[in-house]
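Anyone else keep sequences and structure tokens together like this?

Example one:
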Amino acid sequence: MKTFYKNQSINFYRNNLAGNIFEKNQNFIFVVLLFCCLILTMINPVKTYGERIITLHQAYLYAAKLNGTIKSQRESYYQSTLLKWSAISMLLPNISLTYKDQRFHNNSVSSSSSGSSKGGNIFSFMFPTYGYAFSLTQPLLNISAIPAYYAAENSVKSSKNSLNNISQNTLFNVAKDYYNVLSDENLVKADKKTMQEASSHLQLAQAKLKAGLAIITDVLQAKSEYYQAKQQYIAAKDQLKSDKASLRAIIGVSFNFKVVKSKNPGLLSRKLNNYIKLAYKYNPGLKSLKFLKKESKDEVYYYETQYIPTVNFEATYNGISDKHFIPQGNEHYWTAAGVLTFPIFQGGTRIISIEKARSKNNANMYNLIQAKRNLRADVTSGFYNIQNLKYQIIALQHEESYAYKNYKLVEEEYKAGVATSVDVMTSLAELASARHNLLAEQLNYYTSILNFKTLTGSFKRRLISLKIDKFK
């Protein structure tokens, strides 16, 4: 009996030992396999093609930093800042140094009685002479510098306004393309859902045909509707790729990216008159015309002051040395004078230049008046158009909901044998049309709001708050 228990204990011990060894070997084999997988991964890394996610704000930043049109306009703005120095230099002194160094020689004719065969001129050594002069010209009275400086300041402001306008137009196109991509993604989802619904109906028609509850015409109609829905789905995907390429080009990037749903643009609850006042104050086109009018007015002042007398103080210091021709050897002297320049008559230049500037100023004034009238009409039209689009979107949402419920009802009736396949196809086509109409109207609504913000200048203030444009 003791021997039996002893043998059982030995067997139990052996089994446990074998089990522990197997478990340890199993863990070791697992670690070895994991290590081999890591080595293979390092040798042949698995390529992942992930897409970045870009928000609308990040798209603004990319465009403001990488868009070539904005960069070019920034250089134009920098060039306009240099024009102020041309006006400032009209009041700054001119200081110059002139130095002259010359060499002279005597030319003596050789004697004919010498009988030398080496006839010709005999040159003596060189006689040096030099001279230098310092000159100073300081304008004391130059009225033309004042309108010239104002014109330069106006040119800087006008160039800055052009930079902001180009930035606004570029980033407006960024926002428009961004919402186009969002709308395309929603359209792809809607067409995919329509294709799945058409595929489901095709499978149902085929099942009913096998059961003898439908005819071959029902299957052919369902198949035709499915292929049509599939074609719309493929066309929506191609349009999405095209709009993404346009957005990628304008923001200046080359990598693939995904967009995310951003906050839909909206308007503040203000009265129409308040929007018109904002447009008069902040509209970029109107501000450009104001700068043009002021520029032409400064040009009139500039030409008028060209015929006002100018007074300059001029002084020179001269040092001359001529040891050969001047017995004393050198002379030093200085001069000082006040110079008055008074234009009396310059033909028809004065009349022509002033009249051309005045005519240009009047033309800019008339353009500004007409632009205000057009802007008021555009703001009024855009305001009521947005209100109308808002009600249309609500109606299209109800229409899309009704079309979906109607399709589901007709589909159930077809399963019960009450409706025909034509009824299902008609309801499905109406549902797809309602979805497309709703998405198109929503995109039109967002674009109209962006255009209205551009008219009133509120979109521009938002772009400046990006702090990318340092010329604020």
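And example two:
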Amino acid sequence: MNRKFAAILVFCAMLGAPFAAALAASDQPLPSWELRQLFPGQFRAHVKGYDVRFVASRNGRLKGYYGGFTDEGRWSLRGNRLCIMLKDWLDGKTTCSPVRRTRGWYLARGIRFRRM
């Protein structure tokens, strides 16, 4: 998979429609205190069927790894929403989303992830 396609894939997943599992989840968004316990950390994510690894550092830095591709950006918490910015995969734009938990995974705007 080429870098441009991977970038489009991640971008569409972040801004596009949630997975069917997200539609089935009726859980309330995680409260801000629970998000603060979850982040920073290392995460395995499913984005449109692809495994992507993310490392969210204590200083707000975010790194994404997919195959031989990497991207860097920032993460932050705004109330009960997770906000991320990735230089290439999201064209430097910040997107924020509430996070829900269902079936051992966390769901945020079309991305399913869990701690590693």
